[in-house]
């Protein structure tokens, strides 16, 4: 579970103006965007010819993070915001905490998709806000989280709930922030994410109900289960476990299934989810363009990758700042990013050590 800074939770709970909520939503957009480099780096580390189910699970989370970023951005646009996707993306640095988050026990790194990376980073980011012990989890984890919550830290779910409450206060107080929702500037998500937002298939926000549906979708798909809750998304079925449980299937190597004998009612005892460590490239951790020797093949392809990533950020920035049709171009750049990543991993990170780590596609200069 990501722990949100105490002052941000307090600010969200006290917000009474559009400007305050827009600032909070800008932080939400940056947070959703910040999960993409670690998850995509993991995907790019999976060599061809293996780990197909693992790749599919992680990519399903990547797609939902893109959806969540888009929903937060649409909500901000609806009340007058202009999402700062380019600036947010360029500011990301790893290792470190994610935007708005404080947790000395969670340093987010980017690197190969090892089981340790899945458990220590991916599952730590996505853990649901519950003090119940989740399937396969040590009892000490919920105890530590409860201690931090007692200190005033909040969860992603609480953060979004506070934003919804702020919007409700404004509407109830006669200051409806959705009087000019700028629908023409918002991205229609039904083409790429059908049926994702219950009752609002376009994902566009024009009133309190659509804003609530958008933000609750982010929490439901991401943070997922609460105490005693079913981890299956009621709107999505088997393929819509919350992110934590999708990553859990990789970590434990088996599908999550109902299990009356388990304390939570669920256990990772279903069909196998094969993981072949021999089909995972060994990446240097937290790769930067500047890590690779000037003039080397690794440096040349790494620069090409980072340039493509920046073009993706620019395309997404344009998409949510008055040019929603640019999203088609952004999808093309995303495919190009995959192709350039395949070129980067063909080279050793250090030209003098052919048997060492291969070059990792860098998300930072």
And the CATH topology of the largest domain?
Ferritin
Distance between the termini: 29 Å
Strand order of the largest sheet: 1-2
Task: Summarize the biggest pleated sheet.
Answer: 2 strands, antiparallel
**Count of the domains:** 2
Binned, the helix content reads: 40-55%
Going by CATH, the architecture of the largest domain would be: Up-down Bundle
The CATH H-level superfamily of the largest domain is Ferritin, core subunit, four-helix bundle
Look at the helices and sheets and give the structural class: mainly alpha
Compressed to H and E, one letter per element, the order equals HHHHHHHHHHEEHH
Main CATH class of the largest domain: Mainly Alpha
Count helical runs.
Answer: 12
Radius of gyration in whole Å, from Cα? 20 Å
Shape estimate: globular
Word description of this protein:
By secondary structure, the protein is mainly alpha-helical. It has 2 domains: 6-279, Up-down Bundle (Ferritin); 289-344. The protein contains 12 helices and 2 strands. Residues 234-239 have low confidence and may be disordered.
């Amino acid at each position: 579970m990501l722990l949100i800074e105490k002052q941000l939770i307090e600010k969200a709970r006290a917000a009474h103006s559009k400007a305050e909520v827009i600032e909070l939503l800008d932080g939400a957009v940056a947070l959703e965007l910040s999960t993409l480099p670690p998850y995509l780096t993991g995907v790019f580390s999976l060599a061809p010819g293996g780990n197909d189910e693992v790749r599919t699970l992680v990519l399903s989370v990547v797609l939902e993070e893109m959806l969540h970023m888009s929903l937060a951005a649409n909500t901000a646009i609806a009340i007058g915001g202009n999402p700062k996707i380019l600036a947010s993306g360029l500011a990301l640095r790893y290792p470190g905490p994610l935007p708005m988050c404080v947790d000395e026990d969670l340093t987010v790194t980017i690197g190969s998709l090892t089981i340790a990376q899945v458990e220590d980073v991916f599952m730590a980011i996505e853990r649901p806000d519950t003090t119940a012990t989740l399937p396969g989890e040590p009892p000490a984890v919920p105890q530590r989280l409860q201690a931090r919550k007692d200190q005033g830290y909040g969860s992603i779910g609480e953060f979004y709930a506070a934003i919804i409450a702020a919007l409700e206060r404004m509407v109830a107080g006669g200051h409806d922030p959705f009087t000019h929702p700028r629908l023409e500037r918002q991205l229609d998500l039904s083409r790429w994410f059908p049926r994702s937002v219950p009752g609002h298939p376009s994902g566009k926000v024009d009133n309190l109900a659509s804003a609530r549906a958008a933000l609750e979708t982010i929490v439901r798909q991401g943070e997922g289960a609460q105490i005693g809750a079913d981890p299956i998304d009621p709107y999505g079925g088997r393929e819509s476990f919350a992110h934590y449980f999708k990553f859990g299937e990789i970590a434990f190597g088996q599908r999550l299934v109902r299990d009356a004998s388990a304390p939570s009612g669920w256990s990772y005892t279903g069909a196998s989810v094969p993981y072949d460590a021999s089909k995972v490239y060994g990446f240097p951790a937290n790769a930067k363009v500047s890590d690779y020797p000037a003039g080397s093949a690794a440096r040349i392809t790494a620069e090409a990758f980072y340039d493509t990533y920046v073009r993706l950020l620019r395309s997404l920035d344009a998409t949510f700042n008055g040019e929603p049709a640019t999203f088609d171009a952004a999808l093309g750049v995303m495919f190009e990013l995959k192709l350039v990543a395949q070129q980067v991993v063909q080279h050793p990170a250090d030209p003098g050590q052919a048997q060492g780590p291969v070059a990792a596609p860098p998300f930072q200069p």
